[in-house]
Amino acid sequence: MVPEYTITPEPALISVTVEGLPDYLSIDKLWNDIVAACNQHQCFDILGTSNLEPAPSGEAYSHAAIFEAAGVHNGFRIAWVEENPAAKEWIKLSEAVVRNRDLATARAFDSVAEAKRWLVQTDAAR
After folding, report:
1. What's the whole-number mean pLDDT along residues 70-95?
2. Which of 17, 61, 102, 105 is spaced 20 to 30 Å from 68 by Cα?
3. DSSP 8-state secondary structure symbol assigned to residue 110
4. SS in 3 state form for 14-36?
5. CA dist., res. 56 & res. 85, Å (int)
6. Residue 112 burial (CB < 10 Å; 0-12/13-18/19+)?
7. Degrees, nearest 5: CA angle 67-19-113
C-alpha cells in the first residue's frame, strides 16, 4: 500500500499522519511537503503519528539525504509516534540517523501525549 498522509497546521505545530508502506520516493515526497508547510506557516515543530508497515532498514538510512535535500535543518523539532509495534524499530533507526547527523532535533515516542509534552517542554527551553 502506497503511503497516504495528511499535513495539518495547528496553532503551535504542524501535525502529520501517515499510513502505509514507506519507500524512498514516498518518504522524499512526504518530507518535501512537510518542509513546504513548515515554511509557509513559519512553524518548525512537527508532531507525526504513523501506522506504517515495516520497511527495509536501508530506507531509514536514506532519511539523512532526504532531509538535507528537502531543507530540514536543526531548527526543526520532530516528535514522532509509531502505532504499529512491528514498525517501531524502523522509526527508532530513522530517529538515530537524523539525530546522529544533527539534521534536526528528533525523538520517537510511544504516545501522542508524551510527544506533545516534549514539544512543549523543549519549546519553553528555547
Report:
1. 92
2. 17
3. S
4. EEEEEEECCCHHHHHHHHHHHHH
5. 15
6. middle
7. 80
